[in-house]
Amino acid sequence: MNRAVGYQITERWHTYRRRPADLELWGSVTDAELTSLHAAAFGHAPTAVPWNERLTAHSLTWVTARAPEDRSLVGFVNVVGDGGAHAFLLDTMVRPDQQGRGIGRGLVRAAAREATLRGCHWLHADYEEAAAAFYEQGCGLVPTRAGLLRLRPDQPEPRPARDVTSRSRDQLET
Q1: Which PROSITE patterns did the record assign (predicted)?
Q2: What's the rounded Cα separation, in Å, for the pair 95 and 39?
Q3: Which end of the chain has fewer CB within 10 Å, C or N?
Q4: Shortest CA distance to 61 belongs to which of 94, 30, 89, 99?
Q5: What is the Cα–Cα distance from 118 to 121, expressed in whole angstroms?
Q6: pTM attached to this predicted model
Q7: What is the pLDDT of residues 67-110, one digit of tens each?
Q8: Number of alpha carbons in the 13 Å side-chain half-sphere of residue 85
Q9: What CATH number does the domain located at 22-142 have?
C-alpha cells in the first residue's frame, strides 16, 4: 500500500502483439509485387499484368498491406466505383502464410472508410463460397443475389454461387 496517498498500486501487465501489417491507402506497389501476390493468394502461375496502369486508370482507391519487418507486400485490395453511390471490391488478397491475422479485414475496413469519404453509399463484393465467412462474418457484408454474364467464352466457367434469398434494401441497411 502506498501510505502517502492511501491506495494500493497494482501493476497491470499487458500483452502487446506485433501488428500484422502496415496498411496504406494508395500504397506504392510494383506490377511484379502484385503479380506475385495474386498468384500466391489465388493459387495460379504468375502472369504479367499491367497492374499500375489499371489501378491509375480505373480505381477509386486501393489499399496495400506490408509486413512491418521487411516491407514485403502481404495484402492488397482494389476499389473501383461508378462515380456515384456504388463502390466495388476487387482482388482482395492476402499472402496465404499471413491469412487469419486480420490483415484482410483491415484492408476491407480501410477500403470501406475511403469509399465512404468519397461519397459512396454501397460497397459490393463478389466472392466464392469459400470466402463467405470472411466477407460476411469478418467484414460485415450481407449476401445478396447477383448475376454474372460470361463475355469471353475462352475463359473458365465461374463456379455457381450458393443460393441466397433476395433481401430488401431495408434489410440490407440494418
Answers
A1: GNAT (PS51186)
A2: 9
A3: C
A4: 89
A5: 9
A6: 0.79
A7: 999 999 999 999 999 999 999 999 999 999 999 999 999 999 99
A8: 2
A9: 3.40.630.30
- The pLDDT value given to residue 156: 66
Give 154's pLDDT tier (boundaries 50, 70, 90): confident
Grid cell digits, residue 69: 519487418
How many other C-beta atoms lie within 10 A of the C-beta of residue 15?
4
Cβ-contact 124, 145 below 8 angstroms:
no
d(CA 63, CA 77): 5
> What are the cell numbers at 116?
465512404
- Do residues 106 and 21 touch, judged by C-beta distance below 8 A? yes
User: DSSP letters along the chain, please?
Assistant: -BTTTTB-------PPPPPS-EEEET----HHHHHHHHHHHHTS------HHHHHHHHEEEEEEEE-TTT--EEEEEEEEE-SSSEEEEEEEEE-GGGTTSSHHHHHHHHHHHHHHHTT--EEE----GGGHHIIIIIT-PPP---------TTSPPPPPPPP-----HHHHH-
Q: Which residue, 138, 148, 142, is CA-closest to 108?
A: 138
Please state the domain extents for the chain: 22-142
pLDDT in tens, 163-174: 444 333 344 343
Residue where the block lists cell 490483415: 103
